Amino acid sequence: MARRPTPKLVCSFCGRSEDQCPAIIPGPDGNICSDCVEACSRVLKDAQETAVGKNTRLPKLNVPPPIGIKAFLDQHVIGHEHTKKALAVAVHNHYRRLTQPQAGMDDAFKDVEIEKSNILMIGPTGCGKTLFAKTLAKMLDVPFAIADATTITEAGYVGEDVENILLYLIQAADGDIPRAERGIVYIDEIDKIARKTENVSITRDVSGEGVQQSLLKILEGTVSRVPPQGGRKHPQQEYLKINTANILFICGGAFVGLDAIVRQRQGHRAIGYKEVGDHHARAGAKTDRAAVLDVQPEDLMRFGLIPEFVGRLPVITSMAEVTEGDLVRILTEPKNCLVRQYQKLLAMEGVQLTFEDEALREMARVAMKRKTGARGLRAAMENFMMEIMYEAPGNLKGKTVAITADRVREYGQN
């Protein structure tokens, strides 16, 4: 009895038999040849790229050179020349790596992956750390979020998960995750999550070293699962996935007591943040306001940050406390200075507002007494201007209000 020939496999997509194509993959209800597999792969890849292009709608990033970034910062932030240069270089390098096309790249650099450089800013309260981060995000037109490190605790304890930091950024991007993935996150009070002591404790430090460990992955770059409504995670919950590899993290803190650690390493004894050219500043000369505080990674580790956490913040810059002269300049020089803001508010009511130079200096002295830097200046100005703003809409239209030094002194004594 003659054996029946085995039927040839036929591709269910193109109709060719196994003699006409390199290989056929059999299936329970149909077959597909290797050529059709490759064709389907190309179709899926093109469709995915098209979908990504439609969904992201990302505007092109225009990254100025470091000189241009510093010039923009000069319009909004007074002093801190060294910090401006450090931030300008770090931000330029971070976003340049996102915009540099690989096509046409020299073969010697094709396999070189540029790592991101997160930033740590050290300085007393009110010196402008948050303003720096806000201004950079405004210049680049990228989403910006502020988080407070003191609200974060380890999983299982009352507080927020580290992923909530990313939720703030997604919300700032109006839910557009691809846009959020190239935003800027400023984490304030980062010094408050340092270990309280160098000795190992039997008690849990739920807002200290454990939080540092939790932050490591998102600082370095990982695909994080974020609860869409915030709060703690639970197994049945749906998550938003966001890649943190291209998010720039800027951390800031006062680091009270760090100066003593630095001076001890240097073999000096001094108190506070001393500045370069201090005697020139007292003489009224404009100087580089970079702080002498030369912070090294080992100083931060002695302060209580773990080595892995310090390693994720390679750009470290310290800032000096603002002086009376700085506060006078803050009142008048920035693009969005307080004096111009109040002048505009009163101009809407038909009132002209002027300040004597000595009145501005008196206002700076009042703010210095509060010991909260530029924040104290804003609070002093708000309180001082309250009566004028109360009277202006109804009684001062068409008039000129001149703020004198005596008037400010009288306010400062109350």
Description of the molecule:
The protein has helices spanning 34-56, 66-76, 81-99, 129-140, 163-172, 177-180, 209-220, 258-266, 278-282, 297-303, 307-311, 324-332, 338-347, 357-370, 373-395, 405-413, and strands spanning 24-26, 31-33, 119-122, 144-148, 184-188, 223-226, 240-243, 248-253, 315-318, 352-355, 400-403. The protein is α/β, with parallel strands linked by helices and 414 residues long. The strands form four sheets. A five-stranded parallel β-sheet has the order 4-5-8-3-9, sandwiched between helices. Helix 2 (66-76) crosses helix 3 (81-99) and helix 12 crosses helix 14 (357-370). Residues 51-56, 199-204 and 270-292 have low confidence and may be disordered.
Name the strands of the widest sheet in spatial order.
4-5-8-3-9
Give the rounded overall mean pLDDT: 80
Low-confidence stretches: 51-56, 199-204, 270-292
Question: How does the overall form come out from the CA principal axes?
Answer: elongated
Beta fraction of the residues?
5-15%
Q: Please describe the biggest sheet, giving its number of strands, its sense, and whether it closes into a barrel.
A: 5 strands, parallel
> Number of helix segments?
16
Percent of residues in helices:
40-55%
Could you tell me how far the N terminus lies from the C terminus, measured between alpha carbons in angstroms?
118 Å
Tell me the Rg in angstroms.
Answer: 29 Å
